[in-house]
Amino acid sequence: MTVLRELRGLTEDLLNPTLAEWKADGGKVVGFFCCYVPEEILHAAGIMPYRLRAPHCTQTSSADVYMSHFNCSYVRSCLQFIYEGRFDFIDGYVFTSSCDQARRLYDVLRETTNGRFMHFLSVPHKVSQSSIAYYRDELARFREKLGDHFGVRVRDVDLQRSIEVYNETRKHLRALYQLRWADSPAITGTDVLNAMLAGTALPREHYNQLLVRLLAELQGTERVPDYRARLMIAGGGGCDDPAFIQTMEEMGGLVAGDSLCWGSRYFWQETEALEDDPLLALAAAYLERPACANMVDKVAERSDFIKEMVRCSNADGVVFQRLRYCDLWGGQLLDVEHKMRQSGIPLLTLEREYGTSSAGQLRTRIQAFLETLGR
Amino acid sequence: MTTQQSLLNQIADGIALVRDGMVARYGEKHPEWTWIHGLLADYFDTVRRAKGEGKTVAWVNFGAIPEVFWAMDIVPVVCDGVTGSACMVLPDGASKYIDLAEGVIPDHICGNNKFFVGAAMSGDISIPDMVVQQSSPCDSNLATYPVIAERFGASFFCVDVPYWRDEASFRYVAEEVKRLVSFLEEQTGRKMDFARLQQVMEYSNQAHDHILKLNELREASPYPYSSIETIAEYIPILALAGTPQLADYARRRYELTRDRVERGVGSLPREREKYRLAWIYGALAFDFGIMAWLEREYGAVSVAHMNNNFVMGPVEDLSNMDSVAMGLAHKLVDLPMGRECYGPWETYVGIMIDLCRRYRADAAVFAGHVACKHNWAIIKLVKDRIYDELGIPTLVFECDVYDPRVASSDDIKGKFDEFFETYFE
Question: Is the Cβ pair B169, A130 closer than 8 Å?
């Protein structure tokens, strides 16, 4: 299990040896907070995209000077780490209008830090030809500003190449999910999340190689031990803690599928190759893929996607988790509860704080849910 | 009336009672104080009768542009106005419906949105034909209006508003406005009568022209409005833009206010107007009386409010649909709260500094609605910038503007007591 062990090690901290090497060689890293940022543009510029997490963040006292306790703990934890200098290896940040919390982080960071590249993408809240065209123009501005700041020219042909590289990732991750959906899978949900997270902090070609090795390795490995019930985890951002999944699996659940922006929604849709306008291809792919709750015209589709993931993973029940003060996923709950009840799918809803993956109350509720599933 | 209309009937009856009481008490001495309640009472009467009269009904959030609805004979039910009015006239305020909603969605979602989720669940209100919103300014709106439509079976449309305020973004919103018109045509089976829309826009322009002039007159000292009127105009202006009733109100209000300013007449006599407050956030719907209390207790007049800071000018070119759509796009983006609470924080703080400066505020008040995470995230920056630029303090407190159980009137008055003691006495 060499690759799995390697992947686990990569997610423990913010920096990993490959990333450190990248930096030592003069490589640039740009951080982002939301999966609506097309990483392909950064990759095409020779910059390593890095999705921000704040693992093991235990307090947010510096962040709380500026942001209030009504702001979500994921955003405040990231801000805390920035103030503590934990992200000093990052050369810039890209923000989006995906949620109120993240967009205000852009304001607070601009006012309270300086010297780094910062860019903001206005992500439309609905999908239409004109919204895709609008986002395409946003991405064009992003490409231009990135080029100006880092002194690189991102050509269409570079973007085409990066789209291919990222589509390769998506293909591998699909294959990984096929394996996790098996009746007797070769990988746990915890390790799937570890594999997903590793990709957020590695040069993409290196990550693709790891995924190829992982898939090969999993072909001949032992199955995971028996489990009481198969779970599908759904909901909003901030679900980037393998320990949270591990808690469920330690109690006898097998997290066999997900609808998360750190999971299936990240890779579900490939980017179509549009040779004459790769930016348009990216805008369409990112807006049309399984949507976050910030997309107003996708309420039914979001619940349908959860049901689809339940079907694919043959799950016995859904754990719908979200961070406290996340309004977007909180509102979606009204539809999810209704649709799951209609479909006879057991549902557990959890409100969490970032970084409290195995808190006692969560454990109790998960345990009770597993018992109600009767397995 | 069906039982499903019972909530709107209660609100309409309650507002009518308030109006009648105001007329009886102040009709002769301060007839202008009754005008707003008259407008609101007539509006709610229209709203409650709409279903029975076979009209198409749309729930809209505060930023939606009512002109296109009135032009198509669709009755726009401005949700924020309904919740705010429920707070004023229902025995338990909005709490019954908020509690119902909290059984299915989190408590940290806005009380206004929870109120409509709860009302829809209760069956005390008819599900509308459609729900229409704009995507700014907050997640709470984004999270609930489309879900309400999906869950309870109404058609849905969202006017998408970008983060930026550049030409490309306004063009995008103008296209969205045209799509809204197409949506309404599709839903009603009727074509927009452009001549009718032009007429509605004329009324809207007349109203907004007078509102701009009123903004200038309200700079006067003594302040020519009462503090409560400063915020009470907010919902009627939002809901009734494009109607002759609002145009007539704005004209009469302008003439009266001009006369008061010329005569130096204020809500309080000049010598009793000790402090001028600018509310940079939060309309305390459950107790606007706090503003009257501030006048009595401290001689503190609320001379400006973010929500009543309507600064958009008339739409000048009404000759074709493209120019009207562009004008409405600018209006939509510039509506109070949508304008301040979406986009970079500099927009918000810049407008609030201008507001405080223009109305010569001695202090700013941030009534921090707990659901508004977007503004809670920057209040430290805003407060500091206001102090740096203007040298005035900002009172910041937590509340739910629709629910006194988070912070009661007495709690809030206590905050003001401490504030005045610290900074002014």
Answer: no
The answer to whether the Cβ–Cβ distance between A333 and B105 falls below 8 Å is yes
Q: Are B218 and B359 in contact (CB under 8 A)?
A: yes
Cis peptide before B344 (omega within 30 of 0): no
Give the residues across from B110 on adjacent strands: none
What's the mean per-residue pLDDT of chain B? 96
Which residues of chain A neighbour B106 with C-beta distances below 8 Å? 324, 327, 330, 333, 351
> Which residue from B144, B168, B345 is facing A107, i.e. has the nearest CB?
B345
Q: Please count the residues of chain A.
A: 375
Could you report the per-residue pLDDT of A270-327, keeping only the tens digit for each? 998 777 999 999 999 999 999 999 999 999 999 999 999 999 999 999 999 999 999 9
* Mean pLDDT, chain A, integer: 95
Strand B130-134 versus strand A47-51 pairing type: unpaired
Is residue A138 situated within a structural domain?
A: yes
Count of CB pairs separated by less than 8 Å, A with B? 147
- Our CA-based measurement puts residue A71 at a distance from the nearest CA of chain B, in whole angstroms, of 6
Separation of alpha carbons B387 and B361, rounded Å? 12
The total number of structural domains in chain A stands at 1
Determine the structural domain holding residue A113 and report its residue range: 17-157
pLDDT band at B357 (very low <50, low <70, confident <90, very high): very high
CATH number of B3-162: 3.40.50
Asked if B19 and B34 count as a contact pair (C-beta separation under 8 A), the reply is yes
**B166 to chain A nearest CA, in Å?**
12
For B196-423, CATH number? Answer: 3.40.50.11900
Task: Name the minimum distance, in Å, from the CA of A139 to any CA of chain B.
Answer: 13
The ipTM value here is 0.95
Contact between chains at B163 and A130 (C-beta distance less than 8 A): no
Q: What is the pLDDT of residue B2?
A: 43
Residue A116: give its domain's CATH number.
3.40.50.11890
